[in-house]
Prior knowledge:
With 163 residues, the chain is α+β, with helices and mostly antiparallel strands. The protein has 5 helices and 4 strands; from the N terminus they run E-E-H-H-E-E-H-H-H. The strands form 2 sheets. A two-stranded antiparallel sheet has the order 1-2. Strands 3-4 form a two-stranded antiparallel ribbon. The protein is elongated, with a radius of gyration of 19 Å.
Amino acid sequence: VSVVSYSDNKITTAFSVYEPFLGGRDFDEVLVNYCSDVVMKAIKKDVKEKKSALTRLRTECERVKIKLNTVSEEILSVDNLFPDYDLDMRISRNKFDEMCAHLLKKITPLLLNAKEHIKSGVYAVEMIGFGSRLACVQQHLSEFLKGAQLPAHRRTTDSEEVV
Length: 163
């Protein structure tokens, strides 16, 4: 989270704080762990011990995470995760949000810290990094800003291009 000011065509960073261990992959890992538990209960095998299965599961979990930004429910499916075992389940956005609640709680202290350094009103919120595109992260930020909507036209920075 950074607090910047923009005047006379110059951007000045007033304050910056971050959580080095919080990003899009952490949200993927929530789904991976959930699916691993489902597989362990179903067939008593640990997905994390089989590298190829884990890689395919991670890829599918990332796809589902991205898809849940635009739909309320998505099918998570990995064919032949283990011999004679296909993983198929429905994941709702609400369920995903519940599973990620502990990650969202890590965002609040960052926002509170940044809020102390804001000298005037907030004109725009630039969300950077893939985790910031998640509906649950956007909703959390909106609630923090007391219900302010985060219109797409105000999010002008392309997350993929920011270093």
